[in-house]
Each structure stands twice: as C-alpha cells, then as structure tokens.
Amino acid sequence: QKEVEQDPGPLSVPEGAIVSLNCTYSNSAFQYFMWYRQYSRKGPELLMYTYSSGNKEDGRFTAQVDKSSKYISLFIRDSQPSDSATYLCAMSAVRNAGNMLTFGGGTRLMVKP
Amino acid sequence: DSGVTQTPKHLITATGQRVTLRCSPRSGDLSVYWYQQSLDQGLQFLIHYYNGEERAKGNILERFSAQQFPDLHSELNLSSLELGDSALYFCASSVFSGADTQYFGPGTRLTVL
Question: Is the pLDDT of residue A96 over 70?
Fold first, then answer.
C-alpha cells in the first residue's frame, strides 16, 4: 500500500463549480503538506503549503489538513477551464538532514466551459 | 516560471547508453532535489543535495548517480539505460535543507529505445 493515496480521477466539473480534491496518508510523521498543480508535460507548480492541521486560504484555493484522520483536501472555488490540470498532493516529515517529498498519484481535473 | 532550469528538454537514447541531465537551481537556493515521474510509479524522490553534500537518498538505482557542484548546479547521471528508465526527470530547489518549499523545473523527458 502506498504511503499517500489519491483518487486518480478524472474529475469533470462545469465552469464555476466548487472542486474538492483529497488525499489520505498512512505515515503519522508527515507534518508538512503541499498541493502542486501540473499541466501536461510541465513541471509541478506549488499552489499551497501548510504545516500541521488547520486551514489555509489563498484566493480561490483553500487547503485543509486533518492530521487526526490523516486526510488533506484542496478546495477550488469558482473553477475555471484554466484550472484543468493534474493536482498532486505532497507531504514531508521533519528530518534532521535531508528533505524528501512523498507524492500522491495525482488527480486529473477537467473544468468544462 | 519557477526559476529552476533543466537541460536538455528532451533526450532520446538507446539501451545500454549513459546520459547526463543538468539542473540549475533558483538564485539563492542551496538545495537541489531530483525526482522521477513515470506513468506507473508517479512522482518519486531520487536524491537530495545541499550545498554540495548528499543529504538524502530515495529509491535511486545504483546505475544512477548525482552530484552538486560548487556553483550549486547539479547533474544526474544515468548509465546502462533500460527501457524502464524512460520517464520525466524533474529537478527541484529550495533555500534550505530542512522542511522547505520546493520549486520544480520544467523537467527532462528521457526516452530509451
């Protein structure tokens, strides 16, 4: 079983919809949580970075972390066709030396005009 | 544009050959990370260098090696290439070595024939 699980989708929504993307994880040592957006054949682009449990909002994006349930979410409000991409959750643990990100498999999102 | 540069963009080679992928981190970043992205394995951490020193290793094959030079650019060497090594290889950089946001480059697409 993978450390980080993510529904691969594809998730298809109409323009303007609220999108909910989720990841579950098994490693309780993870404390830093990120969401990346990746357009086809491009490098992942950092969207949100959160530490420990709680919510963080940035424009149309809201990230939620529930460490007790080992569950993180990304909400996209007023979704746009330009939001169509693959969304990757990533996590890392505090380490004395070295820092590696563990990624979910990604969810492909399609926003239809 | 994340500020991380990678060359070449595409590389096509034959089985058994050796290639070198190059990465220049963002200005001021001391850490460089290498990741491999394939369809079946997703985005996987390979290795982390901080200011010229290796800090962490992931599932990196013995045929693969990396180094970070005094000017902080990094190279990933892949030798005795196999068909299964065909993938996107991403470099990321961050300022420090600990839990820190990582910014990804555009990637190098390697095709082994």
Answer: no
